[in-house]
Amino acid sequence: MTGLRRLRRIATALAGSLSHFLLPSQCLLCSAGSRGALCAQCRDALPLASGNLARCPRCGLKLESAGAWTPATSAPLCGQCQSDPPAFDHTLIVTDYAPPIDALIQDLKFRARLPLARALGSLLADSAAGHAQRSGERPDFLLPVPLSRERLEGRGFNQAVELARPVADVLNRPMLLTACVRTRHTGAQAELPLSERRVNMRGAFAVCDRKLIENQHLLVIDDVMTTGHTLRELAACLKRHGAARVSNLVLARTPLH
Ligand SMILES: [Zn+2]
Ligand SMILES: [Zn+2]
Questions:
Q1: How far does residue 192's CA lie from ligand 2's centre (Å)?
Q2: 43 C-alpha to center of ligand 1: Å?
Q3: Which ligand is nearest the CA of 28, by number?
Q4: What pLDDT band is residue 137 in, cutting at 50, 70 and 90?
Q5: Rounded CA Rg of the chain
Q6: How far is the CA of 122 from the centre of ligand 1 (A)?
Q7: Ligand 2 center to residue 83 CA distance, Å?
Q8: pLDDT tens, 194-248?
């Protein structure tokens, strides 16, 4: 990336951030006045916004008989987690990767609309706070999924880090930004057939500082989960290096494997 392109990208991001402070607070989706990122009506309309009740607690996959569980009885594991358990222990999904959230995530990532990160991050923060209250469990550290150096230079920011900031505030936990890196530029998972994504991720992460994660509960944060191979690979790497527990907090999951 040339210096000029990078400067232009930073200028765009700064302009976006500035307008966020100058404009009155509005719902991202319907523009109604709202103190939060979404007004109450739009928030209630998100698919499964109320939590993980009809999702596999381990991987967040939507279970077929949605609505069969109440807060008093936790949902069972999905078939895949039973036959091929991932290294992570728990996954909390805010909503489906579907309209209207999908367009907002794309605006954030591909058009560098950084003010969206704080708004979307506040949805993650609300989910995290609700889960902490229900379960009585709080992670030791947040770990936004690292980007490769190439991707970071191209995009100018890591959307997972930006989304994690409001979560760090609400849980009062620090982010680990140097404990783990993405060692390989694997290309966009979304461009590969589903069958090749798992192989594509193998060995993609490395832990740089084992002491930071040993015996810790890490909350991994990402924007989108599709097959789950990225999060599987990252959790396996963290567990190999001594992490005690790995949970995922993801803004949106595609409805199908
Ligand atoms: Zn609204
Ligand atoms: Zn599952």
A1: 22
A2: 7
A3: 1
A4: very high
A5: 18
A6: 15
A7: 10
A8: 777 777 777 889 999 999 999 999 999 999 999 899 999 999 999 999 999 999 9
CA–CA separation, 217 and 239 (whole Å):
10
Q: Measured between alpha carbons, how far is 139 from 36 in angstroms, rounded to an integer?
A: 24
User: Which of these, 53, 117, 52, lies nearest to 91 by C-alpha position?
Assistant: 52
Residue 36 CA, ligand 1 centroid: distance in Å:
10
Encoded tokens for 248: 């995922």
* CA 227 to centroid of ligand 2, rounded, Å: 11
The pTM of this model reads 0.83
CA distance linking residue 72 with residue 45, whole number of Å: 23
Q: What are phi and psi of 33, to 5 degrees?
A: -60, 135
Q: What are φ and ψ of residue 205, in 5° steps?
A: -120, 155
**Angle in degrees, CA 71, 222, 43, rounded to 5:** 50
Distance 6 CA to ligand 2 centre (A): 40
Geometric angle at alpha carbon 214, from 213 and 217, rounded to 5°: 65
Amino acid of residue 141? F
CA of 93 to the centre of ligand 1 (A): 20
DSSP 8-state secondary structure symbol assigned to residue 55: B
Interval between CA 56 and ligand 2 midpoint (Å): 5
Cβ(11)–Cβ(5) below 8 Å? no
Beta bridge partners of 93: 250
Span from the CA of 20 to the centroid of ligand 2 (angstroms): 38
